[in-house]
Structures are given as C-alpha cells and as structure tokens.
Amino acid sequence: MSTANPDIDRVVDAPSDNFVYRVLPRWLWPHAQLARWDRPIGWQLLMWPCFWSSALAANALAAEGRLNVGLFVFHLVLFFVGSVAMRGAGCTYNDLVDHEIDDKVARTRSRPLPSGRISRKNAKIFMVLQALVGLVVLLCFNTFSIVLGILSLAIVAIYPFAKRFTDWPQFFLGLAFSWGGLMGWAGLHGNLSLAAILVYAGAVAWTIGYDTIYAHQDKEDDALVGVRSTARLFGDDTKIWLVGLYGLTLLLLLIAFIVAGAAWPALLGLLAAGALLGWQIKVLNIDDGAQCLKLFKSNNRVGLIIFSGLILALPFALGS
To answer: Which end of the chain has fewer CB within 10 Å, C or N?
Structure first.
C-alpha cells in the first residue's frame, strides 16, 4: 500500500485552492476527498439533468397556468443538496469497491483509501451518513418521485463493477448520473412523460461523451490493470464517436423541448451548448491528459447554458 505525503495529504487531481484545503480542518480532508468535495464538477454534472428536467416541467406547467414557482425553486434547492450528498456517497462506495485498483493507477493512488489516510470502516460510516442526507432530500418529494429515486439505487450499485465486465462502463454511469432527467419532471408533475424520458436519454448520451474524454486520462494504466472503458474502445476514433453522442444529446433534448412546448430561448440555449460541445470535439487531444480534464470540466458550462435557456423561456410560458 502506498503512503500519503504527510506534508500534503491531498489527491493529485484536485485544485489546491479548493475550500476543502482552505477552510476545513485537516482531519476532515480524507472524508472530503472521498466525497470529492475538492472536485465539484461531479455533483455539478449530476445536478444538471435534474435542473433541466425540472425547468422543462416548470415551462410545461407555466403554459397551463399551474406552475407553483415556490415549489419549483424549492425543488432546485433539494436537487442541489441531493446531488452533493449522493455524488459523495456514490464516490465513497466506488472507492470502497475499487480500493485495490486505485492503488495501481497513478491518478487515483493518492486517494484516501489506497493511501491509507482513512480506514474502510470509517469510509463506510461516512458513506451511510451521506446516503441518509440523500434520503431526507428524497422524502421531501411526492410518492411517485420517492419510488423512482429508490429504483435508481440498482444502477448505482452496479456501476463500479461495470468496468470489469463491459467496454461500456460509461453507459452505466450515464444511466445513473442522468436519473435526474426523470426526477425533475416527476417532482413537479407526479408522473413521467415522453419529454422527461427524452431528457433522460439525451443526458445519458452526454454523460457517455464527457466521461469518455475523462477516461482518456487513465487509458494506459487502465490497460495495464485490465480496466475497460469507452476511451480504450473508441481509441483514435473518439472524435467520431463524440460527434454521434453529442449530436444525439442535442437532438433528443431538442425533441424534448418541442414536445413540452418550451419557448425559443430554450432552443437558443441548446444551440449555444451545441457550439461548446462542438468546440470540445474540435480541440480534443486524447493524448493530453491535462487537456482532457479541462474539456471534461467544461461540460459544467454546457449544463448551465441549457438550464439558463429553459429559465429564460419561462416568462414566455407564463405569458402564454
């Protein structure tokens, strides 16, 4: 087992100026690192499909004169808290499953478990505490949404093992990370619709795309330890696959917006997001790990742009 640097006690791919290292006491650092609080991009990407779906549902309700703005805003707060908590619980679970693999990969060797800075017992306790926060958030929704949220746990449980039996672990990540595409609509409507399913499917394609870029950082180590990924599967054809995946994302979201009757600002937001996704593909160098990480993180802006378009469309729905 590797030994952590006592002078740093940080993971190699986290920004050193993050609040975790500026604000939290040192004894909490391993817990924060397990939850990836020092790398917020994960909860941000988990949150955006929730926000898209909820905002699209709000547009549909506003057009019918039935939107409860206070409830909509409350749901956004719940999705934010839930995303941070459940992403943290999921990452802790993933690290417990991948403990031995992480010790063999350069980028993950400095994580709390393989570096020995936290015990498996304490990691399990921390995982349960985060999951309990997620449960409290879930119980604030309607019964249909609660059942729907519980169903997602089956996919979450399978995902860490996917890299062992398929070249498409990113697909399983997409199924789990995009569940908010269903939850946002269900939270406001108490049911599902074609629009919500289309948002979910589009978010799955988006997740496969951006996580393929992310996985190119580890492809050499993954090959050595036998971990499978779409980055290894696509190889030099990654850009072609990204055109298809990102193109599918935009198409499915476009149809969802049209089906739900979202006004033109939502479509403009989608167009702007498409431009940013196109830029990712154009400049991508799959052999530059630092650039892959930067492009992966730029998907937070993609999520924000799409959500902003839906919010800007709301006044048009309210006035219809």
So the answer is: N
Q: What's the rounded Cα separation, in Å, for the pair 245 and 45?
A: 16
CB atoms within 10 A of CB 236: 8
